[in-house]
Amino acid sequence: MNIRKKTILMVALLGASFLVACKSSEEENGSKTMEQIQKENGKPAKVTSVKTSFVNDYREYSGSISGKQQSSAIAKLSDPIQSIKVSIGSYVKKDQVLAEYLFTGDNTGKEQAEEQVNLLEASVKRLQEVYDKGGISKQDLEQAETQLRIAKMSLEQAKRASVVLAPANGIVTSINIEQGQVPQLGSTLFNIANLSEVILTISVPTHDIGAFKNNLLATVELNGEVFEGKVSKVPMAANEVTRFFPVEITFKNPGRKLLPGMFVTAKVLVNSVDALSVPNEAIVYQNSNHYVWVVADNKAKRKLVSVGVSDPTNTQITSGLTESETIMIEGMSKMNDGDKVLIVE
Question: pTM for this structure?
Answer without folding.
Answer: 0.58
